Each structure stands twice: as C-alpha cells, then as structure tokens.
C-alpha cells in the first residue's frame, strides 16, 4: 500500500469536545478539515460551535487575532462519515472510548478513505493492535493521543501498532510538530504512558481518601502545590535526578515498610544507585545530565518555578474549587 507523501486535506470523525478541539488545531494551522459525525446536521452544529468557541478564545486572548476566521475558513461539515474521509490524507478518529464503537467507525473510515490515507485513533487506553484489526490496511494506522483541552495541551502520544509503517509514524510526527505540539513516541501497551501514570496517581489518591488520611480537597491542595507544581515544568526523571536518586531509594524503603510491595524501590532505580549514579550531584542519573550545565539548569529551574508562582497568583483560585 502506497502511503500519502504529504498531508493537506484532513478529516475528524467524532466532533465532540475532544474531536472538536483537534479539528480547531488542524484548521488553525492551515489544514482543511472535514467534520464527520452521526449525520450532516450534527456535523454542521459542531462546525458552528467550534467557530463560535474560537471567537470566544480569541476575544479572551487565548488565540491570536484572526485565528477564529482562519478556523472558520478551514472547517467544513460533511453529510456523513464516509463523505468526510473520502478525500482526506489524514483522518483523526475521536469517537467515544468504547472498543465496539471504535471498531465499527474504523471499519467505515478505512473503507471510505483513500487507500493511502493515514488513519489515527485518539484512543486514551485501548491498544492500537486491538483496534488495528478493524482497519483495512493496518500499516497506515496508529494512535495519536491528544489530551483535553486539545487547543492548549502541548503533549501528544504517538503509538504504533504491530503493523504500522515507519513512514506513517514519521508523517504523523511531522504533522504534530507542524501543529506546534510536542510528540512523544511510546509503545503499544494499555494506557500508553500518560494515562498509565495519571490513573496510578488517581488510584493512590483515592486510597488515601479511603484510609482517612486526608480529604479530596486537601489532597488536591498538596498535589497542585508541591510535586504537581514541579510537574508543570519537568518530568519525573528530571525531578528525580535533580533531587538525588539516593534520596528517592531511601524514601521508597520507608514507604515499603509501611505500605508493602507496591512501594518496593524499582529495580531500575536501585541498580542506578548501586552504580553510584545519583543524579545531578554525581553528574549522571537516568537522564545523564551534563555536570557542566548544572548551574544553568538550577538557575532555569528556580526562574521557572518563580514565574509559575507569579502566574498562579495572577490567575487566582480556580472558580468553584
């Protein structure tokens, strides 16, 4: 199967909150977007909603001047899913997170789209290999996992299935970069990376509530003002390397005594510490940070945290929380 060489015409199938946001981003960056949903009437209502929402974003300074008109010029409602994808080089599937629904829609998309069109599922957790069984030409199929709200969250996971062509992965990555987003290639496992981490945190937070250690509002206050605050700027490995991996291992030992094997130190961590690689203070950790750049990194960190604190003070407390 010959895959398209460039992406110009696109389609979004499933234009609710998630799919609508994806469509806005594509349209804002100059791609023609056909909106496909249950029928043409629903697709047209979505088009009107997305343009109105873009005008509101622009009025509030969340999008640049003229963004709404660009989005309006590039969005078009299709009469059916098949019409939406019929001339697309790239199709984003964003229907509800139900394997049966997704399988049915992917069959319809792959039957109606051009043979070389790239088909991307926005699944949050369903393995791409499982969904690929419903796609004609699975070499052109991959996962492209956006996060809500799509216009403003920069990170996107790219997940290949067992038959995904390297060319398709490269095309998808080029597209995501052209949209001003940050792609990360991850393996095809349930939940991928973002949701596996996110739901692990949620489960432990719920367990803390069940144990009566803290109320949900207090847990949110702890997370958003401590390690969650840091996570807005750095990932867990960068934070660990800056803190010291020996400190992490020691903390795990304390937690393991109290809570059991779910807090047993990870093998990768203990092995790294045993090798004497403790992170920034020894010049090497999981990320192999260059010791020569230590002072610059610390200065960046301090400036970034101070600026984030200022932004939070400017924004104030989130309404209703």
Automatic annotation (TrEMBL):
A single GO molecular function, which one?
Answer: L-gulonate 3-dehydrogenase activity
The record places domain 3-hydroxyacyl-CoA dehydrogenase C-terminal at 191-288
Cite the annotated pathway.
Answer: Lipid metabolism; butanoate metabolism
State the Gene Ontology BP annotations.
fatty acid metabolic process
EC numbers, comma separated: 1.1.1.45
Q: Name one GO cellular component term.
A: cytoplasm
Q: Which InterPro entries match?
A: 3-OHacyl-CoA_DH (IPR022694), 3-OHacyl-CoA_DH_CS (IPR006180), 3-OHacyl-CoA_DH_NAD-bd (IPR006176), 3HC_DH_C (IPR006108), 6-PGluconate_DH-like_C_sf (IPR008927), 6PGD_dom2 (IPR013328), NAD(P)-bd_dom_sf (IPR036291)
All residue ranges annotated as the 3-hydroxyacyl-CoA dehydrogenase NAD binding domain in the record: 11-188
- Predominant cellular place of this UniProt entry's protein: cytoplasm
- SUPFAM superfamilies the record matches: 6-phosphogluconate dehydrogenase C-terminal domain-like, NAD(P)-binding Rossmann-fold domains
Where does the record place the site Important for catalytic activity?
145
- Cytoplasm found in the keyword field: yes
Q: How does it assemble?
A: Homodimer.
Name it. L-gulonate 3-dehydrogenase
């Amino acid at each position: 199967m010959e895959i398209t060489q460039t992406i110009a015409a696109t389609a979004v199938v499933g234009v609710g909150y998630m799919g609508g946001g994806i469509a806005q981003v594509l349209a804002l960056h100059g791609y023609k977007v056909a909106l496909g949903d249950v029928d043409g009437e629903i697709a047209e209502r979505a088009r009107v909603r997305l343009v109105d929402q873009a005008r509101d974003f622009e009025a509030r300074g969340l999008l640049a001047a003229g963004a709404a008109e660009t989005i309006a010029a590039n969005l078009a409602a299709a009469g059916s899913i098949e019409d939406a994808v019929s001339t697309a080089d790239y199709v984003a599937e964003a229907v509800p997170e139900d394997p049966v629904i997704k399988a049915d829609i992917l069959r319809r998309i792959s039957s109606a789209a051009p043979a070389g069109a790239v088909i991307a599922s926005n699944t949050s957790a369903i393995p791409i290999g499982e969904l690929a069984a419903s796609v004609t030409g699975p070499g052109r199929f991959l996962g492209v996992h956006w996060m809500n709200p799509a216009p403003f969250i920069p990170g996107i996971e790219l997940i290949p299935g067992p038959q995904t062509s390297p060319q398709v992965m490269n095309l998808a990555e080029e597209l995501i970069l052209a949209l001003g987003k940050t792609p990360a290639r991850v393996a095809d496992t349930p939940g991928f990376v973002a949701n596996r981490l996110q739901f692990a945190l949620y489960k432990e937070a719920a367990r803390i509530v069940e144990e009566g250690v803290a109320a949900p509002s207090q847990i949110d206050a702890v997370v958003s003002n401590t390690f969650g605050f840091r996570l807005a700027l750095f990932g867990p490995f960068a934070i660990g390397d800056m803190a010291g991996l020996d400190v992490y291992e020691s903390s795990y030992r304390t937690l393991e005594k109290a809570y059991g094997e779910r807090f047993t130190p990870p093998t990768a961590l203990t092995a790294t510490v045993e090798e004497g690689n403790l992170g920034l203070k020894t010049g090497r950790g999981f990320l192999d940070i260059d010791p020569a750049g230590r002072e610059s990194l610390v200065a960046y960190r301090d400036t970034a945290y101070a600026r984030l604190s200022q932004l939070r003070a400017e924004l104030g407390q989130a309404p209703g929380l």
